[in-house]
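User: Show me a protein chain along with its predicted structure.
Assistant: Here is one chain, sequence first, then structure tokens.
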Amino acid sequence: FSELYILADLMALRLQTAGLSSEKREGLGSAVIYRALTAGDIDAYVEYSGTIWTSLMRRADNPPRAQMMAELGDWLKANSGVVMLGALGFENNYALAMKRDRAQQLGVASIEDLARITPQLVFGADLEFQSRPEWARVRDAYGLRLREIKSYNPTFMYRALDDGQADVITAFSSDGRILSQNLVTLDDPKNAFPRYDAILLIAPKRAGDAKLRAALQPLVGAIDLARMRRANLEIDRDADKLTPRAAAEKLARDAGLTK
């Protein structure tokens, strides 16, 4: 989805600045790309902490962020030799979202509220969501039984809310369309969704590559949620779109990563 294309270009910009060449491998799913990293077929990529926590570590608990990040780093190093360089500074959590006026009309502010009326609703999900453990967790935690579930790529998923094809979708918290489409994200009082900090991972074979690590290190802690939302909206809006590369260049300037 849009964010990962931007972040791949942002990493390429940092490598270029350091005098390193790079080649992008795009369109890989989360399970495929992690295996490629551990096998040394790719050297670095941005993952989300919750994906590793639930899909790879098979953890169902939801500890405080500091504890989760420490355990993630230790597990990656022990399990595969992957280095977690650090967190970029924002989360891209799964969140259930609705049009604000529709949520108010139905009296829905939380997933708990939603559960009472799910048989009446059509649910829009991204292409991976129904096969991910996060869906099973939130579905079972709240007893969600929806009338229909439709799968979309992210762009069409957000449009489905506007044209009435879906009542609620699996939004991403760093998506600029949450603001531009006046959506409300539903509270998760049972903490069914884990945290999804964007984290930068380095392949085992590059763990000792000081030049690569130095080139990418400035990304750690440099991108807050507001910056990422603005960058995402640059390529997701309906008019005057930027390319991912142009959005990455603008984000790099905004975050002080270029001279």
